[in-house]
Design a protein that fits this description.
Layout (H helix, E strand, L loop, with lengths): L1 H43 L2 H4 L2 H31 L4 H18 L7 H23 L2 H7 L1
């Protein structure tokens, strides 16, 4: 029985170290993506002078919101790195920013009322799930005990 415990302990330790190494590589990739997104956003500022005003600012806004979505992904990865678990609220925030980015991309396009209703239902559902996740989080239950 003792040998099995040692093997289990070694496998668990190997898994934890492997996960941390891979997560560190992922965090480095996310930081590189954020840097690239910021550079690309500044590059798109040239559109103000060569295209229509609203088109240029819509592109700029989508670029900024995309970078913010990647920042939310970074927060999720860092939370897992420090706490060993993924926070649902960070994932929901990421999805909400991404959905709002898509809404901004279609701002000046014609949308059917069904598509608009689906987006509204999605955003309201995400907001509801986020409220539930905050209300019933493991941390709040620990504080009550």
């Amino acid at each position: 029985m003792w040998k099995e415990d040692v093997v289990d302990l070694k496998l668990t330790r190997f898994f934890e170290i492997s996960a941390r190494v891979l997560l560190s590589l992922l965090i480095a990739a996310i930081l590189l993506a954020i840097l690239t997104g910021i550079i690309y956003t500044f590059y798109d500022l040239r559109l103000i002078f060569i295209t229509e005003f609203h088109t240029a600012f819509r592109t700029f806004l989508v670029d900024v919101l995309t970078v913010l979505a990647i920042v939310e992904i970074l927060r999720t990865a860092l939370a897992y790195f420090t706490e060993g678990r993924v926070k649902v609220t960070y994932i929901i925030d990421t999805v909400m920013v991404t959905v709002l980015t898509e809404v901004m991309a279609f701002w000046y396009k014609e949308m059917d009322w069904q598509q608009l209703a689906m987006v509204i239902i999605l955003v309201l559902s995400l907001a509801f799930v986020r409220i539930i996740a905050v209300r019933y989080s493991p941390r709040s239950h620990r504080a009550e005990l």
